Amino acid sequence: MEINELKFLTGKWRGFGMAVYPNIIPVSYSELLTCEYDKHKDLLTYSQFTQYTDPERSGRTLHMESGFIRKSDSGVIELSNSQNNGRVEVMILDDTDLFAESIHLVFRSKLFGNDPRMIISLREFIYSNNKLTYEMKMSTMKNTELTTHLTCELNREA
Question: What pTM was estimated for this model as a whole?
Answer without folding.
Answer: 0.94
